[in-house]
Specification:
single chain, rod-shaped, two-stranded antiparallel sheet, two-stranded antiparallel ribbon, 3 helices, Wheat Germ Agglutinin (Isolectin 2), domain 1, alpha+beta
Length: 71
C-alpha cells in the first residue's frame, strides 16, 4: 500500500515537472493575456494611443511605430 503511494507521488512529481512546474489553468489565463494585448497605452512622444501589441517599448516607455522609427 505504501509502495503504491510512493510510486504515484513520484509519477505525479514527474508529470508536474514535465509541464514546467506549473499546473495548467482553464480559461482565465487566455482571457487575461488577450486583455493585456488589447490594452491601450499612450505614446511618450506624440501622445497617440496604441495597443500594447502594436507599441514598441524603449527604455521602459511605450512608443508608436512612427515615433520609434525617429528615435
Amino acid at each position: 500500500m505504501i509502495l503504491k503511494l510512493i510510486i504515484f507521488a513520484v509519477a505525479g512529481y514527474f508529470i508536474y515537472k514535465f509541464f514546467g512546474g506549473k499546473l495548467p489553468t482553464i480559461g482565465k489565463s487566455k482571457a487575461e493575456k488577450k486583455l493585456d494585448e488589447d490594452t491601450l497605452v499612450e505614446c511618450e512622444k506624440c501622445g497617440t494611443y496604441v495597443t500594447v501589441k502594436e507599441s514598441i517599448i524603449i527604455n521602459g516607455k511605450y512608443y508608436c511605430d512612427e515615433c520609434a522609427a525617429k528615435i
